[in-house]
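[Q] Does anyone have a clean structure-token version of this?
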Amino acid sequence: MLRTRLVQHTARIPWRRFYATPSASNTPVFQVFNREAKRMQKDRAAKDVESSRTVDYLKDEVAARVADRLQDIKRDFDTVVDLGSGCGHIVKHVNKDMLKKLVMCDTSAYALLRDKDIAYPVEVERRVVDEEHLPFAEDSIDAVVSSMSMHWINDLPGALIQVRKALKPDGVFVGAILGGDTLFELRTALQLAESERESGVSPHVSPMTGKKNLDSSDIARLLSRAGLVLTTVDVDEIQVNYPSMFELMEDLKAMGENNAVLTRRHMLSRDTLLAAAAIYKELHGNPDGSVPATFQIIYMIGWKPSPSTPLPKKRGSATASLKDVLEN
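[A] Here you go.
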């Protein structure tokens, strides 16, 4: 479990929060997230270098687990693309035995360049890329990785199809995405407080990939729909303890993980925030006075089909009985 982080200072209650506003009336109805607002949030977070490095703990931990899964694949990769790389989390956990070159891609140029002066054991290329519109040629990449970024994509099936097209035959995609139970404590506390104080609720915690209860079966279907085969999906949870709800919200902002839902409200009243903090502690608080925040991580692996890809045998083609094998 990730090491508990406790911040020893008096919580500052945010009176107002400023967000980038969504684009005008021609926004397509199928869009859940404001991608431009998300880019601005990530830019703003990366500009505060020291604060953003302080909150790398969560993304670094998940990136390490993604890198472990890539390392388990006994293959020498030439070029690997890191989609939604942020400031560089996966690159901290790779070496020359795994790959020769890592292409870091993100919508935020400030995030990409935050740690540009740090030397890494592999060649690094940084490119400003929108994960919803990949610029890579078909059959050009050995592997694609993504860690804690794809939950902000509006068209996730379309993005996975683009990943599959960019991969070389028998190329692999390894990713980690936030599941639907992420930050359920914060979501319920804000909903209850807002319902009590303002007689209604609005989305303050982004739905993960636009679906409230995204689970492993959903991810498996998305990978298959994108044309990837030999898929593997597993789920893990990381729980981090904070002194109060306000430190959690400050860390999310410093990570660039602010709410980016198109229909979000841009401000909550002081009374509602205080009520939410009290509800959070009452419903979910730890005996030591801290409050937990749960991050559900769904890990996924999928392969691009090739002539050498192992395929399941046709039904009824078996030449031996499983019952006989088990009895013997």
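[Q] Thanks! Anything notable?
[A] Residues 1-29, 208-212 have pLDDT under 50 and may be disordered.
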